[in-house]
Amino acid sequence: MRIRSALTALAVVLAGLVAGAGNSAAAGTTMATTASPYCGITWGSADKSAGALSSAPLVDVRTGRHDCYDRVVFEFAGPVDGYAVGYGETWTEGEGLALSPYTAGGALLRVSLRAPAYDDSHVGTVPYRVGEHAANLLRYPTLRDVVFGGSFEGYSTFAVGVRARLPFRTFVLAGPAGHSRIVLDVAHRW
């Protein structure tokens, strides 16, 4: 009788373990399924940098809205491929003044372009002064502000205010004509 009770108890325990293992396997399958990235974006939010210093001056800054991201384009009168972009405080070039108090947005991208915003005679090539807003971003889903931080010793700085810390990418495009562009895209969400 004792053996029969022990075997019955063992059978109940084993049945419970087998049932639990089946549920765990099903739960594991459910947990392994992840949502696909927003618009296929896999950029991340880590710092990005590339290229070398150039003497081709910055001549234009413009923005654009796309379905999955907002864009800032920096155009140069010649070949430029140097930049460093990352989240954090941005300082004016040559003065060291923090731009965060003057830049709208929940997060701040510091953009350092490895090219001047002045020509060979040291005359400014963009219409902005240090601290001025370079774009009207009304109705942009992600971008909140683009503030010129100045140009000093061949480097030009911008503070780009965004809604939150979001994935971004930076790349270089040739043209039009002999110009080049550094492009910054910031996703609308993760």
Characterize the structure shown.
The chain is built from one helix and nine strands. It is an alpha+beta fold and 190 residues long. The strands form two sheets. A five-stranded antiparallel β-sheet has the order 1-4-5-7-6, with no helix packed on it. A four-stranded antiparallel β-sheet has the order 2-3-9-8, with no helix packed on it. The longest helix has 31 residues. The radius of gyration is 27 Å and the shape is globular.
Could you write a compact summary of the structure shown?
This protein is α+β, with helices and mostly antiparallel strands and 190 residues long.
Overall residue-averaged pLDDT value? 88
Strand residue content: 25-35%
Helical/strand content category: alpha+beta
Poorly predicted sequence stretches spanning 5 or more consecutive residues: 23-32
Number of helical regions: 1
What separation lies between the terminal Cα atoms?
63 Å
Q: Reading side by side through the largest sheet, how are the strands ordered? A: 1-4-5-7-6
Global Rg: 27 Å
Main β-sheet, in a few words? Answer: 5 strands, antiparallel
Report helical residue fraction: 10-25%
**Helix and strand element order:** HEEEEEEEEE
Shape: globular
Keywords, separated by commas or semicolons:
globular; about 190 residues; five-stranded antiparallel beta sheet; four-stranded antiparallel beta sheet; alpha+beta
